[in-house]
Protein backbone atom coordinates (compact mmCIF):
# COMPACT_ATOMS: atom_id res chain seq x y z
CA UNK A 1 0.00 0.00 0.00
CA UNK A 2 1.23 3.44 -0.88
CA UNK A 3 2.58 5.72 1.81
CA UNK A 4 2.33 9.08 0.10
CA UNK A 5 -1.00 10.90 0.35
CA UNK A 6 -1.73 13.78 -1.95
CA UNK A 7 -3.63 16.79 -0.58
CA UNK A 8 -7.16 17.43 -1.76
CA UNK A 9 -6.29 20.37 -4.03
CA UNK A 10 -3.89 18.18 -5.98
CA UNK A 11 -6.42 15.38 -6.20
CA UNK A 12 -8.84 17.99 -7.55
CA UNK A 13 -6.32 18.97 -10.20
CA UNK A 14 -5.66 15.36 -11.27
CA UNK A 15 -9.29 14.20 -11.32
CA UNK A 16 -10.37 17.34 -13.15
CA UNK A 17 -8.40 16.12 -16.17
CA UNK A 18 -10.16 12.77 -16.45
CA UNK A 19 -13.04 11.94 -18.78
CA UNK A 20 -16.51 11.64 -17.27
CA UNK A 21 -16.66 7.88 -17.60
CA UNK A 22 -13.56 7.47 -15.42
CA UNK A 23 -14.98 9.84 -12.82
CA UNK A 24 -18.22 7.91 -12.61
CA UNK A 25 -16.24 4.71 -11.99
CA UNK A 26 -13.93 6.34 -9.43
CA UNK A 27 -16.93 7.38 -7.34
CA UNK A 28 -16.55 3.82 -6.00
CA UNK A 29 -12.97 4.40 -4.81
CA UNK A 30 -14.07 5.68 -1.41
CA UNK A 31 -16.67 7.95 0.18
CA UNK A 32 -14.58 11.11 0.10
CA UNK A 33 -13.91 10.61 -3.62
CA UNK A 34 -17.61 10.10 -4.27
CA UNK A 35 -18.38 13.32 -2.40
CA UNK A 36 -15.66 15.23 -4.23
CA UNK A 37 -16.69 14.02 -7.70
CA UNK A 38 -20.38 14.83 -7.17
CA UNK A 39 -19.74 18.21 -5.54
CA UNK A 40 -21.09 21.16 -7.58
CA UNK A 41 -17.72 22.98 -7.32
CA UNK A 42 -15.89 20.03 -8.80
CA UNK A 43 -18.50 19.66 -11.54
CA UNK A 44 -18.09 23.28 -12.62
CA UNK A 45 -14.27 23.04 -12.43
CA UNK A 46 -14.46 19.98 -14.64
CA UNK A 47 -16.74 21.73 -17.10
CA UNK A 48 -14.37 24.68 -17.30
CA UNK A 49 -11.32 22.50 -17.83
CA UNK A 50 -13.04 20.72 -20.68
CA UNK A 51 -14.49 23.79 -22.34
CA UNK A 52 -12.09 23.46 -25.25
CA UNK A 53 -13.85 20.34 -26.44
CA UNK A 54 -17.12 22.09 -27.12
CA UNK A 55 -18.63 21.01 -30.35
CA UNK A 56 -21.77 20.41 -32.29
CA UNK A 57 -24.09 17.49 -31.96
CA UNK A 58 -25.50 16.17 -35.18
CA UNK A 59 -28.57 13.99 -34.91
CA UNK A 60 -29.07 11.34 -37.56
CA UNK A 61 -32.68 10.41 -37.42
CA UNK A 62 -32.86 6.69 -37.99
CA UNK A 63 -34.79 3.68 -36.93
CA UNK A 64 -33.75 2.59 -33.46
CA UNK A 65 -33.87 -1.03 -34.55
CA UNK A 66 -30.80 -0.45 -36.67
CA UNK A 67 -27.82 -1.73 -34.80
CA UNK A 68 -24.23 -0.66 -35.15
CA UNK A 69 -25.10 2.83 -36.24
CA UNK A 70 -24.84 5.83 -34.04
CA UNK A 71 -27.67 8.27 -33.76
CA UNK A 72 -25.46 11.19 -32.79
CA UNK A 73 -22.16 12.50 -34.09
CA UNK A 74 -20.13 15.02 -32.16
CA UNK A 75 -18.40 17.49 -34.43
CA UNK A 76 -15.48 19.54 -33.28
CA UNK A 77 -16.05 23.21 -32.69
CA UNK A 78 -13.11 24.50 -34.72
CA UNK A 79 -13.64 25.11 -38.40
CA UNK A 80 -12.76 21.58 -39.40
CA UNK A 81 -15.99 20.09 -38.02
CA UNK A 82 -14.31 16.72 -37.75
CA UNK A 83 -16.43 14.03 -36.19
CA UNK A 84 -14.49 13.34 -33.01
CA UNK A 85 -16.91 10.91 -31.46
CA UNK A 86 -20.34 9.46 -31.86
CA UNK A 87 -22.86 7.88 -29.59
CA UNK A 88 -26.04 5.93 -29.77
CA UNK A 89 -29.20 6.01 -27.74
CA UNK A 90 -29.20 2.89 -25.54
CA UNK A 91 -32.96 2.75 -25.12
CA UNK A 92 -35.83 2.62 -27.54
CA UNK A 93 -38.74 4.95 -28.07
CA UNK A 94 -42.39 4.27 -28.68
CA UNK A 95 -42.33 5.23 -32.34
CA UNK A 96 -39.76 4.19 -34.90
CA UNK A 97 -37.61 7.28 -34.67
CA UNK A 98 -36.45 9.68 -32.05
CA UNK A 99 -36.95 13.33 -32.68
CA UNK A 100 -34.55 15.75 -31.07
CA UNK A 101 -36.30 18.57 -29.22
CA UNK A 102 -33.15 20.34 -28.08
CA UNK A 103 -29.89 20.13 -26.21
CA UNK A 104 -28.50 22.30 -23.45
CA UNK A 105 -25.14 21.78 -21.77
CA UNK A 106 -25.13 18.28 -23.18
CA UNK A 107 -28.47 17.28 -21.74
CA UNK A 108 -30.55 16.04 -24.65
CA UNK A 109 -34.31 16.35 -24.82
CA UNK A 110 -35.87 13.81 -27.17
CA UNK A 111 -39.34 12.70 -28.09
CA UNK A 112 -41.00 10.25 -30.46
CA UNK A 113 -41.51 11.15 -34.07
CA UNK A 114 -44.45 11.90 -36.34
CA UNK A 115 -47.89 11.65 -34.75
CA UNK A 116 -46.39 10.46 -31.47
CA UNK A 117 -44.29 13.57 -31.09
CA UNK A 118 -44.53 15.26 -27.71
CA UNK A 119 -46.49 12.58 -25.89
CA UNK A 120 -43.50 11.01 -24.19
CA UNK A 121 -40.38 13.06 -23.52
CA UNK A 122 -36.94 11.61 -22.83
CA UNK A 123 -34.27 13.61 -21.03
CA UNK A 124 -30.96 11.95 -21.59
CA UNK A 125 -27.42 12.85 -20.52
CA UNK A 126 -25.15 10.75 -22.74
CA UNK A 127 -22.02 11.58 -20.71
CA UNK A 128 -23.33 9.87 -17.63
CA UNK A 129 -25.97 7.67 -19.20
CA UNK A 130 -28.79 9.10 -17.14
CA UNK A 131 -32.26 8.87 -18.57
CA UNK A 132 -35.50 10.34 -17.37
CA UNK A 133 -38.69 9.41 -19.18
CA UNK A 134 -41.59 11.83 -18.80
CA UNK A 135 -44.94 10.23 -19.52
CA UNK A 136 -47.07 12.31 -17.20
CA UNK A 137 -49.01 15.46 -18.02
CA UNK A 138 -51.29 17.94 -16.29
CA UNK A 139 -53.93 17.03 -18.84
CA UNK A 140 -55.76 13.91 -19.78
CA UNK A 141 -55.66 13.16 -23.43
CA UNK A 142 -56.26 10.20 -25.59
CA UNK A 143 -52.80 8.95 -26.53
CA UNK A 144 -53.84 7.64 -29.91
CA UNK A 145 -56.06 10.48 -31.00
CA UNK A 146 -54.26 11.67 -34.09
CA UNK A 147 -56.24 14.88 -34.06
CA UNK A 148 -54.17 16.01 -31.10
CA UNK A 149 -50.73 17.33 -31.78
CA UNK A 150 -47.98 18.89 -29.73
CA UNK A 151 -45.29 21.52 -29.84
CA UNK A 152 -42.41 21.26 -27.43
CA UNK A 153 -39.53 23.51 -26.38
CA UNK A 154 -36.55 22.75 -24.18
CA UNK A 155 -34.76 25.53 -22.33
CA UNK A 156 -32.76 26.64 -19.35
CA UNK A 157 -33.89 29.14 -16.74
CA UNK A 158 -30.66 30.90 -15.74
CA UNK A 159 -32.16 32.57 -12.68
CA UNK A 160 -33.59 29.41 -11.20
CA UNK A 161 -30.67 27.31 -12.57
CA UNK A 162 -33.23 24.84 -13.84
CA UNK A 163 -33.91 22.93 -17.04
CA UNK A 164 -37.46 23.40 -18.30
CA UNK A 165 -39.69 21.94 -20.97
CA UNK A 166 -42.75 23.67 -22.36
CA UNK A 167 -45.43 21.64 -24.12
CA UNK A 168 -48.46 22.89 -25.99
CA UNK A 169 -51.32 20.53 -26.85
CA UNK A 170 -53.45 21.40 -29.85
CA UNK A 171 -56.78 19.83 -30.62
CA UNK A 172 -57.20 20.15 -34.32
CA UNK A 173 -58.05 18.02 -37.24
CA UNK A 174 -55.18 15.93 -38.54
CA UNK A 175 -56.02 16.65 -42.17
CA UNK A 176 -56.77 20.28 -41.65
CA UNK A 177 -54.73 21.35 -38.66
CA UNK A 178 -55.51 25.01 -38.71
CA UNK A 179 -59.00 24.46 -37.46
CA UNK A 180 -59.30 24.74 -33.71
CA UNK A 181 -61.65 22.08 -32.34
CA UNK A 182 -60.84 22.83 -28.73
CA UNK A 183 -58.76 25.49 -26.98
CA UNK A 184 -55.05 24.68 -26.78
CA UNK A 185 -53.50 23.81 -23.43
CA UNK A 186 -49.98 24.42 -22.22
CA UNK A 187 -47.82 23.15 -19.39
CA UNK A 188 -44.25 23.60 -18.24
CA UNK A 189 -42.00 21.00 -16.67
CA UNK A 190 -39.24 21.86 -14.22
CA UNK A 191 -36.44 19.36 -13.73
CA UNK A 192 -35.68 20.76 -10.27
CA UNK A 193 -39.28 20.24 -9.13
CA UNK A 194 -39.72 17.17 -11.33
CA UNK A 195 -43.30 18.09 -12.13
CA UNK A 196 -45.51 19.69 -14.77
CA UNK A 197 -47.46 22.85 -14.08
CA UNK A 198 -50.34 24.24 -16.10
CA UNK A 199 -49.82 27.65 -17.72
CA UNK A 200 -52.02 29.94 -19.78
CA UNK A 201 -51.89 30.20 -23.57
CA UNK A 202 -53.88 32.28 -26.03
CA UNK A 203 -56.20 30.55 -28.45
CA UNK A 204 -56.39 31.21 -32.14
CA UNK A 205 -52.93 30.14 -33.23
CA UNK A 206 -50.72 27.12 -33.86
CA UNK A 207 -46.99 26.62 -33.60
CA UNK A 208 -46.11 25.12 -36.98
CA UNK A 209 -42.68 23.99 -35.81
CA UNK A 210 -43.04 20.98 -33.57
CA UNK A 211 -39.81 21.59 -31.73
CA UNK A 212 -38.32 25.04 -31.44
CA UNK A 213 -34.58 25.36 -32.06
CA UNK A 214 -33.90 29.07 -31.79
CA UNK A 215 -33.10 30.18 -28.25
CA UNK A 216 -32.46 33.91 -27.83
CA UNK A 217 -32.42 35.73 -24.48
CA UNK A 218 -33.73 32.76 -22.57
CA UNK A 219 -36.77 32.45 -24.83
CA UNK A 220 -37.63 29.87 -27.42
CA UNK A 221 -39.23 30.62 -30.79
CA UNK A 222 -41.66 28.75 -32.99
CA UNK A 223 -42.77 29.65 -36.48
CA UNK A 224 -46.53 29.95 -35.96
CA UNK A 225 -49.78 30.65 -37.74
CA UNK A 226 -53.20 31.99 -36.84
CA UNK A 227 -56.04 29.52 -37.06
CA UNK A 228 -58.52 29.67 -39.92
CA UNK A 229 -61.01 31.44 -37.67
CA UNK A 230 -58.41 34.08 -36.79
CA UNK A 231 -57.64 34.27 -40.53
CA UNK A 232 -54.26 33.26 -41.70
CA UNK A 233 -50.98 35.09 -41.32
CA UNK A 234 -47.76 33.81 -39.82
CA UNK A 235 -45.87 35.13 -36.83
CA UNK A 236 -43.35 33.96 -34.22
CA UNK A 237 -44.64 32.44 -31.01
CA UNK A 238 -42.21 32.87 -28.11
CA UNK A 239 -41.90 31.35 -24.68
CA UNK A 240 -39.70 32.84 -21.98
CA UNK A 241 -38.33 30.16 -19.64
CA UNK A 242 -37.77 32.68 -16.86
CA UNK A 243 -41.21 34.33 -16.68
CA UNK A 244 -42.94 31.22 -18.12
CA UNK A 245 -45.01 33.39 -20.45
CA UNK A 246 -45.84 33.19 -24.13
CA UNK A 247 -45.37 36.14 -26.44
CA UNK A 248 -45.47 37.06 -30.09
CA UNK A 249 -43.01 38.62 -32.51
CA UNK A 250 -43.88 39.89 -35.97
CA UNK A 251 -42.15 38.44 -39.00
CA UNK A 252 -40.51 40.57 -41.70
CA UNK A 253 -42.18 40.86 -45.11
CA UNK A 254 -40.17 38.01 -46.55
CA UNK A 255 -42.62 36.90 -49.21
CA UNK A 256 -42.08 37.29 -52.92
CA UNK A 257 -43.70 35.83 -56.01
CA UNK A 258 -41.75 32.56 -55.93
CA UNK A 259 -44.35 30.42 -54.24
CA UNK A 260 -44.31 29.03 -50.74
CA UNK A 261 -40.87 28.99 -49.17
CA UNK A 262 -39.26 26.75 -46.58
CA UNK A 263 -38.92 28.85 -43.42
CA UNK A 264 -36.92 28.16 -40.29
CA UNK A 265 -35.96 30.16 -37.22
CA UNK A 266 -32.31 30.06 -36.16
CA UNK A 267 -29.78 32.07 -34.23
CA UNK A 268 -27.13 34.03 -36.11
CA UNK A 269 -24.50 35.79 -33.97
CA UNK A 270 -26.83 35.80 -30.98
CA UNK A 271 -29.67 37.42 -32.93
CA UNK A 272 -32.89 35.81 -34.01
CA UNK A 273 -32.65 34.87 -37.68
CA UNK A 274 -35.19 33.75 -40.22
CA UNK A 275 -33.93 31.52 -43.00
CA UNK A 276 -36.12 31.48 -46.06
CA UNK A 277 -35.41 28.96 -48.79
CA UNK A 278 -37.00 29.37 -52.23
CA UNK A 279 -37.65 26.24 -54.26
CA UNK A 280 -36.87 25.68 -57.90
CA UNK A 281 -39.02 23.40 -60.03
CA UNK A 282 -37.39 20.25 -58.71
CA UNK A 283 -38.23 20.72 -55.06
CA UNK A 284 -34.69 21.76 -54.30
CA UNK A 285 -33.83 25.12 -52.87
CA UNK A 286 -31.93 27.39 -55.18
CA UNK A 287 -32.00 30.63 -53.29
CA UNK A 288 -31.71 31.48 -49.61
CA UNK A 289 -32.63 34.69 -47.83
CA UNK A 290 -31.29 35.25 -44.32
CA UNK A 291 -33.19 37.83 -42.26
CA UNK A 292 -31.78 39.03 -38.96
CA UNK A 293 -33.64 40.79 -36.15
CA UNK A 294 -31.13 43.48 -35.14
CA UNK A 295 -32.89 44.53 -31.96
CA UNK A 296 -34.65 41.70 -30.25
CA UNK A 297 -38.43 42.10 -30.22
CA UNK A 298 -38.43 45.13 -32.53
CA UNK A 299 -40.23 44.13 -35.72
CA UNK A 300 -38.86 47.15 -37.61
CA UNK A 301 -35.30 45.93 -36.97
CA UNK A 302 -35.66 42.93 -39.30
CA UNK A 303 -33.23 43.25 -42.21
CA UNK A 304 -32.44 40.93 -45.08
CA UNK A 305 -28.75 40.41 -44.32
CA UNK A 306 -27.94 37.84 -47.00
CA UNK A 307 -29.54 36.71 -50.20
CA UNK A 308 -27.57 33.92 -51.75
CA UNK A 309 -27.81 31.73 -54.81
CA UNK A 310 -25.27 28.96 -54.25
CA UNK A 311 -24.11 26.85 -57.20
CA UNK A 312 -25.27 23.74 -55.42
CA UNK A 313 -28.92 23.09 -54.78
CA UNK A 314 -29.94 21.79 -51.42
CA UNK A 315 -32.84 20.14 -49.77
CA UNK A 316 -33.00 22.01 -46.51
CA UNK A 317 -31.11 24.05 -43.97
CA UNK A 318 -30.24 22.22 -40.76
CA UNK A 319 -28.77 25.08 -38.81
CA UNK A 320 -26.09 27.71 -38.49
CA UNK A 321 -22.67 26.86 -37.15
CA UNK A 322 -19.72 28.99 -36.25
CA UNK A 323 -21.95 32.09 -36.44
CA UNK A 324 -21.30 32.19 -40.12
CA UNK A 325 -22.07 28.98 -41.93
CA UNK A 326 -25.33 27.40 -42.98
CA UNK A 327 -25.40 23.63 -42.69
CA UNK A 328 -27.26 22.35 -45.72
CA UNK A 329 -28.51 18.93 -46.63
CA UNK A 330 -27.74 17.90 -50.20
CA UNK A 331 -30.26 15.14 -50.20
CA UNK A 332 -29.55 13.93 -53.73
CA UNK A 333 -26.03 12.86 -52.87
CA UNK A 334 -26.59 12.02 -49.22
CA UNK A 335 -24.18 14.51 -47.84
CA UNK A 336 -23.95 17.56 -45.69
CA UNK A 337 -22.25 20.74 -46.74
CA UNK A 338 -21.62 24.00 -44.98
CA UNK A 339 -21.96 27.30 -46.76
CA UNK A 340 -19.94 30.24 -45.54
CA UNK A 341 -22.11 33.37 -45.69
CA UNK A 342 -19.11 35.72 -45.95
CA UNK A 343 -16.79 33.83 -48.33
CA UNK A 344 -19.73 32.31 -50.18
CA UNK A 345 -17.98 28.96 -50.28
CA UNK A 346 -19.15 25.42 -49.85
CA UNK A 347 -17.32 22.96 -47.69
CA UNK A 348 -18.10 19.28 -47.54
CA UNK A 349 -18.49 18.07 -44.00
CA UNK A 350 -16.37 15.00 -43.51
CA UNK A 351 -18.87 12.79 -41.77
CA UNK A 352 -18.50 9.10 -42.22
CA UNK A 353 -20.31 6.46 -44.25
CA UNK A 354 -23.58 6.72 -42.39
CA UNK A 355 -24.94 9.01 -44.99
CA UNK A 356 -25.21 6.28 -47.55
CA UNK A 357 -28.45 5.18 -45.95
CA UNK A 358 -31.30 6.66 -47.85
CA UNK A 359 -33.86 6.69 -45.12
CA UNK A 360 -31.80 8.83 -42.84
CA UNK A 361 -32.58 12.36 -42.05
CA UNK A 362 -30.27 14.61 -40.15
CA UNK A 363 -30.80 17.38 -37.78
CA UNK A 364 -28.14 19.71 -36.69
CA UNK A 365 -28.21 21.74 -33.59
CA UNK A 366 -25.53 23.57 -31.77
CA UNK A 367 -24.63 21.89 -28.54
CA UNK A 368 -21.63 21.60 -26.35
CA UNK A 369 -20.74 17.97 -26.09
CA UNK A 370 -18.46 16.76 -23.40
CA UNK A 371 -18.24 19.85 -21.30
CA UNK A 372 -21.61 18.87 -20.06
CA UNK A 373 -20.13 16.44 -17.78
CA UNK A 374 -22.28 16.08 -14.77
CA UNK A 375 -24.39 19.14 -15.15
CA UNK A 376 -27.60 17.29 -15.88
CA UNK A 377 -26.83 15.07 -12.95
CA UNK A 378 -26.44 18.01 -10.63
CA UNK A 379 -29.75 19.48 -11.71
CA UNK A 380 -31.47 16.26 -10.93
CA UNK A 381 -30.18 15.85 -7.43
CA UNK B 1 19.48 12.51 -23.14
CA UNK B 2 18.30 14.52 -20.17
CA UNK B 3 21.53 13.83 -18.28
CA UNK B 4 23.56 15.21 -21.19
CA UNK B 5 21.60 18.45 -20.95
CA UNK B 6 22.17 18.63 -17.23
CA UNK B 7 25.93 18.05 -17.57
CA UNK B 8 26.28 20.55 -20.41
CA UNK B 9 24.48 23.09 -18.27
CA UNK B 10 26.81 22.52 -15.32
CA UNK B 11 29.90 22.70 -17.53
CA UNK B 12 28.74 26.01 -19.01
CA UNK B 13 28.11 27.36 -15.54
CA UNK B 14 31.58 26.37 -14.36
CA UNK B 15 33.10 28.29 -17.28
CA UNK B 16 31.46 31.53 -16.13
CA UNK B 17 32.93 31.67 -12.67
CA UNK B 18 30.89 34.58 -11.42
CA UNK B 19 27.57 32.74 -11.59
CA UNK B 20 25.74 33.01 -8.32
CA UNK B 21 24.76 29.85 -6.50
CA UNK B 22 22.04 29.37 -3.97
CA UNK B 23 22.22 26.74 -1.24
CA UNK B 24 19.14 24.65 -0.57
CA UNK B 25 18.96 22.09 2.22
CA UNK B 26 16.61 19.12 1.91
CA UNK B 27 14.69 17.35 4.68
CA UNK B 28 17.44 14.73 5.06
CA UNK B 29 20.14 17.34 5.47
CA UNK B 30 21.78 17.36 2.05
CA UNK B 31 22.79 20.79 0.74
CA UNK B 32 22.38 21.51 -2.98
CA UNK B 33 24.31 24.34 -4.62
CA UNK B 34 21.97 25.52 -7.31
CA UNK B 35 22.63 28.02 -10.08
CA UNK B 36 20.57 31.15 -9.39
CA UNK B 37 18.34 31.14 -12.53
CA UNK B 38 17.48 27.51 -11.86
CA UNK B 39 16.73 28.08 -8.17
CA UNK B 40 14.55 31.08 -9.06
CA UNK B 41 12.16 28.77 -10.89
CA UNK B 42 11.22 27.59 -7.40
CA UNK B 43 8.68 30.23 -6.44
CA UNK B 44 9.21 29.58 -2.73
CA UNK B 45 12.94 30.33 -3.13
CA UNK B 46 12.36 33.37 -5.31
CA UNK B 47 9.97 34.96 -2.84
CA UNK B 48 12.25 34.05 0.11
CA UNK B 49 15.11 35.99 -1.48
CA UNK B 50 12.85 38.80 -2.69
CA UNK B 51 11.28 39.30 0.73
CA UNK B 52 14.46 39.03 2.83
CA UNK B 53 17.01 41.58 1.73
CA UNK B 54 19.48 40.67 4.49
CA UNK B 55 20.09 37.12 3.24
CA UNK B 56 23.54 36.60 1.77
CA UNK B 57 25.08 34.10 -0.57
CA UNK B 58 26.06 32.10 2.44
CA UNK B 59 22.49 31.67 3.59
CA UNK B 60 21.36 28.07 3.37
CA UNK B 61 17.64 27.89 2.77
CA UNK B 62 16.03 24.90 4.50
CA UNK B 63 13.35 23.00 2.59
CA UNK B 64 11.97 20.65 5.26
CA UNK B 65 9.26 19.18 3.00
CA UNK B 66 11.51 18.07 0.16
CA UNK B 67 13.51 14.85 0.18
CA UNK B 68 16.90 14.52 -1.49
CA UNK B 69 15.48 12.10 -4.06
CA UNK B 70 12.68 14.50 -5.01
CA UNK B 71 15.17 17.40 -5.13
CA UNK B 72 17.28 15.56 -7.71
CA UNK B 73 14.20 15.12 -9.89
CA UNK B 74 13.07 18.72 -9.46
CA UNK B 75 16.49 20.13 -10.33
CA UNK B 76 16.86 17.89 -13.36
CA UNK B 77 13.61 19.32 -14.73
CA UNK B 78 14.40 22.94 -13.85
CA UNK B 79 17.94 22.74 -15.26
CA UNK B 80 16.70 21.30 -18.52
CA UNK B 81 14.13 24.08 -18.84
CA UNK B 82 16.69 26.73 -17.99
CA UNK B 83 18.89 25.28 -20.72
CA UNK B 84 16.04 25.40 -23.24
CA UNK B 85 15.36 29.00 -22.24
CA UNK B 86 19.00 29.98 -22.57
CA UNK B 87 19.32 28.46 -26.02
CA UNK B 88 16.02 29.74 -27.34
CA UNK B 89 14.80 32.69 -25.26
CA UNK B 90 11.93 33.53 -27.61
CA UNK B 91 10.13 30.22 -27.90
CA UNK B 92 10.97 26.86 -26.37
CA UNK B 93 11.86 24.09 -28.85
CA UNK B 94 8.58 22.28 -28.36
CA UNK B 95 9.51 18.90 -29.78
CA UNK B 96 12.70 18.77 -27.74
CA UNK B 97 10.81 19.76 -24.60
CA UNK B 98 8.25 17.05 -25.22
CA UNK B 99 10.92 14.43 -25.83
CA UNK B 100 12.74 15.45 -22.66
CA UNK B 101 9.56 15.40 -20.58
CA UNK B 102 8.48 12.01 -21.90
CA UNK B 103 11.85 10.43 -21.11
CA UNK B 104 11.97 12.24 -17.80
CA UNK B 105 8.76 10.74 -16.37
CA UNK B 106 9.07 7.32 -17.96
CA UNK B 107 11.83 6.52 -15.50
CA UNK B 108 9.76 7.52 -12.46
CA UNK B 109 7.71 5.03 -10.48
CA UNK B 110 4.25 6.00 -9.25
CA UNK B 111 5.66 6.62 -5.75
CA UNK B 112 8.44 8.83 -7.13
CA UNK B 113 5.91 10.69 -9.23
CA UNK B 114 3.72 11.41 -6.20
CA UNK B 115 6.71 12.49 -4.14
CA UNK B 116 7.68 14.93 -6.86
CA UNK B 117 4.14 16.25 -7.10
CA UNK B 118 4.22 17.01 -3.38
CA UNK B 119 7.62 18.67 -3.74
CA UNK B 120 6.57 20.72 -6.78
CA UNK B 121 3.46 21.79 -4.88
CA UNK B 122 5.47 22.85 -1.81
CA UNK B 123 8.15 24.59 -3.86
CA UNK B 124 5.38 26.22 -5.87
CA UNK B 125 6.66 25.46 -9.37
CA UNK B 126 3.36 25.74 -11.20
CA UNK B 127 4.65 24.62 -14.58
CA UNK B 128 6.15 21.42 -13.17
CA UNK B 129 3.12 20.76 -10.97
CA UNK B 130 0.84 21.14 -13.96
CA UNK B 131 2.97 18.77 -15.97
CA UNK B 132 3.21 16.14 -13.22
CA UNK B 133 -0.50 16.14 -12.36
CA UNK B 134 -1.15 15.68 -16.08
CA UNK B 135 1.17 12.66 -16.02
CA UNK B 136 -0.62 11.26 -12.95
CA UNK B 137 -3.99 11.70 -14.69
CA UNK B 138 -2.69 9.83 -17.75
CA UNK B 139 -1.49 6.99 -15.51
CA UNK B 140 -4.91 6.46 -13.95
CA UNK B 141 -6.98 6.98 -17.08
CA UNK B 142 -9.28 4.06 -17.94
CA UNK B 143 -8.05 1.97 -14.99
CA UNK B 144 -9.92 -0.20 -12.52
CA UNK B 145 -11.10 1.14 -9.18
CA UNK B 146 -8.67 -1.22 -7.40
CA UNK B 147 -5.75 0.11 -9.41
CA UNK B 148 -6.66 3.68 -8.51
CA UNK B 149 -7.01 2.84 -4.82
CA UNK B 150 -3.53 1.32 -4.86
CA UNK B 151 -2.13 4.25 -6.82
CA UNK B 152 -3.33 6.81 -4.29
CA UNK B 153 -3.11 4.59 -1.22
CA UNK B 154 -6.80 5.06 -0.50
CA UNK B 155 -8.75 2.70 1.75
CA UNK B 156 -12.13 1.51 0.56
CA UNK B 157 -14.61 2.67 3.20
CA UNK B 158 -17.77 1.51 1.45
CA UNK B 159 -19.66 -1.50 2.75
CA UNK B 160 -19.77 -4.36 0.23
CA UNK B 161 -23.48 -3.57 -0.37
CA UNK B 162 -22.82 0.12 -1.03
CA UNK B 163 -20.05 -0.71 -3.47
CA UNK B 164 -22.16 -3.31 -5.24
CA UNK B 165 -24.97 -0.76 -5.59
CA UNK B 166 -22.67 1.82 -7.14
CA UNK B 167 -21.33 -0.75 -9.57
CA UNK B 168 -24.79 -1.86 -10.52
CA UNK B 169 -26.07 1.68 -11.01
CA UNK B 170 -23.13 2.69 -13.19
CA UNK B 171 -22.43 -0.65 -14.82
CA UNK B 172 -21.64 0.96 -18.18
CA UNK B 173 -18.75 2.93 -16.66
CA UNK B 174 -17.05 -0.31 -15.63
CA UNK B 175 -16.96 -1.73 -19.14
CA UNK B 176 -13.89 -1.62 -21.37
CA UNK B 177 -11.44 -0.77 -18.61
CA UNK B 178 -7.69 -1.49 -19.07
CA UNK B 179 -6.17 -4.43 -17.24
CA UNK B 180 -4.13 -3.47 -14.22
From TrEMBL, chain A:
**InterPro entries listed in its UniProt record:** F-box-assoc_dom_typ1 (IPR006527), F-box-assoc_interact_dom (IPR017451), F-box-like_dom_sf (IPR036047), F-box_dom (IPR001810), Gal_Oxase/kelch_b-propeller (IPR011043), SCF_F-box_component (IPR050796)
* The F-box domain, residue ranges: 1-46
Checking Pfam families in the record gives: F-box, FBA_1
**Gene3D superfamilies xref list:** 1.20.1280.50
What domain of life?
Eukaryota
Q: Which PROSITE patterns match?
A: FBOX
- Protein name per the record: F-box domain-containing protein
TrEMBL record, chain B:
Q: Which residues form the SKP1 component POZ domain?
A: 20-82
Name the UniProt key words of this record, in alphabetical order: Ubl conjugation pathway
The record's region (Disordered) falls at: 1-26
Query: Where do Low complexity bias regions lie?
Result: 1-15
Answer whether the UniProt record assigns the keyword Acetylation to this protein. Answer: no
Task: Report the pathway entry.
Answer: Protein modification; protein ubiquitination
- Superkingdom of this protein's organism: Eukaryota
**What Pfam families does this protein's entry cite?**
Skp1 (PF01466), Skp1_POZ (PF03931)
Using the record's annotation, list all stretches that form the SKP1 component dimerisation domain.
Answer: 127-173
Keyword Lipid biosynthesis present in the record's keywords: the answer is: no
Per its database record, what is this protein's job? Involved in ubiquitination and subsequent proteasomal degradation of target proteins. Together with CUL1, RBX1 and a F-box protein, it forms a SCF E3 ubiquitin ligase complex. The functional specificity of this complex depends on the type of F-box protein. In the SCF complex, it serves as an adapter that links the F-box protein to CUL1.
Family (UniProt): Belongs to the SKP1 family.
Subunit composition and interactions: Part of a SCF (SKP1-cullin-F-box) protein ligase complex.
What name does UniProt use for this protein?
SKP1-like protein
Per the UniProt record, the source organism is Xanthoceras sorbifolium
